Amino acid sequence: MSQKEEVSLEISKDGPYIVKNVAILRNSKGNSLETQPVMALCRCVSSKNKPFCDGSHLEIAFKDEMN
User: pTM of the entire structure?
Assistant: First the structure.
């Protein structure tokens, strides 16, 4: 029997959320999205591939003073 990996979330400095080992991911409409073992999720709200990060935070110089 394999041991399940623990779900984790890391906040990248001025970048996306890095989530690991998420089994189920849904968009804002409740639709299931394909998951990967490691995913970068947008938090700058400028990604054209929401909820996934497409690097837009670099183009808009996204800054989060708290993280």
Answer: 0.86
Q: Which two three-digit tokens encode residue 54?
A: 């497409």
Counted domains in the chain: 1
Contacts 24+ apart (CB under 8 A), 6-15: 11/43, 11/64, 11/67, 12/40, 13/64, 13/67, 14/57, 14/62, 14/63, 14/64, 14/67, 15/40, 15/43, 15/53, 15/57, 15/62
CATH for 15: 3.40.5
- Alpha carbon distance 3, 66 (integer Å): 34
Q: Tell me the per-residue pLDDT of 7-32, one tens digit each, with 9 for 90 and over.
A: 999 999 999 999 999 999 999 899 99
